[in-house]
Structure formats: C-alpha cells, structure tokens
Amino acid sequence: MLQAEEIKEYAKSLSVPAVGICNADRDEQLLSYLEKRHQNFSACSFEEKDIEKRISVCQLMPEAKSVLVCLFPYYIRAVQPENISRYAAVQDYHLVVKQYLKKIADFIQSKEPKAQCLPVCDTSSLVDRHLAWKAGLGFYGKNNVLIHPVYGSYCFVGALVLNVPLEADEPMKASCVGCGACIRSCPGQALSDNFGFDCERCVSYLTQTKVLTEEQQSILEHQRNVYGCDVCQSVCPHNQHVPDTPIREFYREPLRQLNEESIAALSNRQFKERYKNYPFSWCSKQTILKNFRRYNEEK
Length: 299
Known about the structure:
Blueprint: H1 4-13, E1 18-23, H2 28-40, H3 51-55, E2 66-73, H4 86-89, H5 93-111, E3 117-120, H6 128-134, E4 139-140, E5 146-147, E6 155-162, H7 181-185, E7 191-192, E8 196-197, H8 203-207, H9 214-219, H10 231-234, H11 260-264, H12 268-274, H13 285-298
Antiparallel strand pairs: 1-2, 2-6, 3-6, 4-5, 7-8
C-alpha cells in the first residue's frame, strides 16, 4: 500500500522542499471564514462565487480521499524587479508547478496504478493556501498570505487531489509574530486586524483590473509597479532572511522590469507570445499600458 512518506521523499528528490498532506473533507472552518469575509468585504472577481465549491474537495473530484500539497519557493535574492512583483518576474508558476505535479503523479501511479491524480494550482475553485495550511506547510500572516518557516511567503502552492487515502499532517502551531508591519505599510490600506482583507483596495489587484473608480485610481498614485505589489511581503520579518529557491526553472530569464515603449510597439498577439512564459501574460497589453500611463501622469 502506498505510504505518504514515499511520496514526500520522491517530491523532495525533485527539489520540492515542502510537502504535506491534508484530508479531502468538507471544510467547515473555511466555510465560517469565507462567510465572515463576504459579510465585511467585496469578493475578489477572480474567486469562485459558489462557496460550496471552495470548501469541498469532493466537488472537484467526487472520489477524493486526500490532497498532497507542495510549496514551490520563488525568491531569488539577485533578482530585484523594478516595476513588477517578484512572482511576476520569474517563469510562470502555472507551467512550472504543473511539470512537477505531473512527475509526482506519475510516481504515485507507478506505485498505485488505479490512483487518480488531479493537479491543482491557483486556477481551481479550491483555496490553495488553506490546503497548504491544513497540510502543515505554514501559518497565516496578518496579510493573509501563507508563511513557511524557512522560505517565508515567497511560495507558490501546487497540489494533487487523490482518490488514495493518505495519513494527513497536522497544521503548524507556529504563528505570525503579529508586528503589524504589513498592515501599516500596505499602500491601499487593504489590510486590517483579525486578518481582514479588502481586495478592492489592494494595489496588486488594482494593477490587474481594467476599470478603476476614482478612489482606486488615487490608491495607485505614486505606485511605480505596473503589475503586482510586494510591499506587505517585503516588510514582513519572516521574509528577511529567506534562502534562494531550489526550483531551477525560476532562474531561467528572470525579468527586471517591463518597458512601456517595448510593450506599446507589440500587437496583442506579439505581447502574448513574448511573455507567454511569465505569470502576467494572461493580462491584457492595454491593462499594463494603463498602469504605465497612470504612473507617467503622476511624475
């Protein structure tokens, strides 16, 4: 019978440094959190609207018995992006994580031929960070991001939903130091005590949004980034001495900045082709240029 430790050891042999397992039960704790958040803040347009699909793994795979969760650190000290977020400066995590999950799934099925393995990375209805928390891979910061004790919050989450029962890990007992640096430093004042988060005031979210209100435009004043924001992560004490990522794919052609003239000269198709291997390629060229124009007008 397939054992959890076998899979974890194999994943770590691929340089995936943090691997855990959680059950596939309907998550009442997450339901309570999401209902409370929706009472106080607007839902993010990127989120699945049906809460039941967010809290129940079996909505995604009826045969689900467990979830294998992996963290993929992306921090590289030598890469210092100037006008994009760190996560947007490296190779598209959707593509990279998918490759690793495929290898792990192949390993599982070599040991358990009848195993079903459904890869999950950011685009499913599930709350990936919550799966990682349940699997014992980190704790939540005041900025609502998952923090790993070694790699900080600079981590992508990937998972395999399995029809194979595996022994689940326990959530970490560690916690955020509670310094409040992220809350005080957030440019849009999107964060509040008790893990409050208003996406409508988040700079990262607003740089990805096509149409902004006057208030949202004012939030972006003096913000240099044209895609994403790292402020709440860069000031976090848990991120001050994190090691570079062991994931080799993230070292391939990292970006330092986006250039307005270069992007403006591209057609929409050329923009998608040139940046197809980066996480922001889904975003329209016009949205990126809108952020350049806003910044130039403020200078």
